[in-house]
């Protein structure tokens, strides 16, 4: 039996880190037959950002993806990444939703639940671990690795013991930013092997250039399983190449026993597939040692790059990376992994663009007051005070946060019944809605249209053909394909009035409603994002500092406040995408 086993991340974390999680089912399924023959410990193929992205950008049902992959991989366990009480969303869910989600995931095809909590708070493991035990599936508890004064080898050993006691079948060290150094990996694994009896898996991103050496030393210290990615989707912000690690161990006591020839065939397939996603490719393709200071995980880097581009602020990236270290310290040194990586990263962007802590996202406020669990270190007391005041609560939460959340599955199911117009909606649809209540309704409407497609085309528009003949002096409708994506475009003669709104497959910035010149003070969007909801009614009287609407930007909720006293008139509709500095309301 091979001493070292490998988990390949090509179907999830590799393309999440390099291509913003955009790989579609059509590019995964054709190679599954060969992947299934390799003999991996597991294939990580679900969870993380795949659930969100499938509905938001790909028009694919994440549950259908799981079922199709399970059918195509009958001999290889499928692993998912589960964020404990957060599941796959950005808040804590009630215990009944956690139980339903884990049960449904197991039923649809998950064999290995890799469960972690961004704060390494064992209380946030309980509901997910208890639910996973009932399914009989493999439970892997993951420790989120960071290098701060409060993340020590002794603390990791203490956590490992606790996770083994709560029923974990294996332990993972989740090094999401490539911070685990080779010799520290050796010492850490040695210490863990003395303390626990369950197998140890090492997950280390290649971002800082250390991962190949780190995996090698971890194996020498006794780690039984290593995370890798097939070579075309390896390195950069992704992981060590599978073939490289196989060759390093070949002929030694750590030989994986995997077929290099088969792996090369799989690599050749993905070498062609990745051309479809060139437009999403991260620019972080080499080793970036700035991450040793900022501790930004691989997937967050590529996403942050895109987010700064959206806000015309890519030149601020170095400033943001430096600011992340400041925010992480002020927030009590949470490890930077979803959702805390998004919370800290988005706050750092806001600090750089708008002034330090001039705006606190809703998620930042909740993290500061304890609604995500206990942070490893004390937080900036002035920020905690500000967050408590914003949330209108008296004191930080010191108990298990989920204890404050009443059962909510029945309520969510009722909302989905109305949404779909059915008496018995599939549990999977209810859970999709629970994870992303702002995205799922739109996805349900478009689901029958089928997934988007990506093709390896250079940035250029192909000749457009009208979808229907246009009468004289009337608007003509065209489908224009740019970079493999279809856009519906309306062209009309000068002076003509469009008979219907123009729609595109990617939302454009919302039009600004007309208002008399000088009628009032304009409130502008701080970042490019989507208007989620209004906090007050149209025409309501507000005072300076009152919340008037919520904009979702960079997956975080940002409360937009009144700048003056007066009656509010909204200029952007709910659900509209707005650009940075675009007026979204007028107060006068």
Query: Which secondary-structure class do the elements indicate?
Result: alpha/beta
What is the beta-strand fraction?
15-25%
Radius of gyration: 24 Å
Helices, by number, come to 21
The general outline is: globular
The main pleated sheet reads as: 8 strands, parallel, barrel
Number of strands: 19
Helix content: 25-40%
Low-confidence stretches: 460-510, 512-517
Average per-residue pLDDT, rounded, comes to: 87
Order of strands in the sheet with most strands? 1-2-3-4-5-6-7-8
Ends: how far apart? Answer: 75 Å
Could you characterize the architecture of this molecule?
This protein is an alpha/beta fold. Helix content is 36%, strand content 16%. It has 21 helices and 19 strands. The protein has an eight-stranded parallel beta barrel, surrounded by five helices. Helix 8 packs across helix 9. About 10% of the residues have low confidence.
